Amino acid sequence: MEFCHQHNLVKPDTAGAERPFGIKVSLPPGDTFERLLGSDWESLHWYATASERDLAFKQMAERHGYYRTTDVTTQILEKLRR
After folding, report:
1. What's the pLDDT at 49?
2. Angle, alpha carbons 47-27-66 (nearest 5°)
3. How many CA atoms lie within 13 A of 28 on its CB side?
4. Cβ–Cβ < 8 Å for 60, 10
5. Which residues face 47 on adjacent strands?
6. What is the pTM of this model?
7. Mean pLDDT throughout 34-55?
8. Between β-strands 42-47 and 21-26, what pairing exists: parallel, antiparallel or unpaired?
9. How far apart are CA 61 and CA 19, in angstroms?
């Protein structure tokens, strides 16, 4: 597989590696982003080790500095294992 963009989530040297640990990102029912993404939207991210997944989970769940005081994230994060 060709990788031509820096923003790809899979590094070329690890593209064939097994990744049994994952994070599922989805929206709660009734979220306003459903109008843009659809009610069945989800994104899956896979990792080779549980510790990699747990670190990414922690970073994804963190409140980012660019949020306004009144902003609240509504994403649902779920740890997975295949």
Report:
1. 94
2. 80
3. 6
4. no
5. 21
6. 0.78
7. 93
8. antiparallel
9. 21
| Each residue's pLDDT tens digit, 53-69 | 999 999 999 877 777 88
Q: How far apart are CA 55 and CA 16, in angstroms?
A: 22
Phi first, then psi, for residue 77 (nearest 5°) are: -110, 135
Query: What is the per-residue pLDDT for 6?
Result: 54
Q: How far is CA 43 from CA 68, 75, 76, in A?
A: 25, 11, 10
CB of 47 within 8 A of CB of 21?
Answer: yes
- The C-alpha angle 9, 15, 16, rounded to 5 degrees, equals 150
Q: Which stretches of the chain are DSSP H helices?
A: 34-37, 50-61
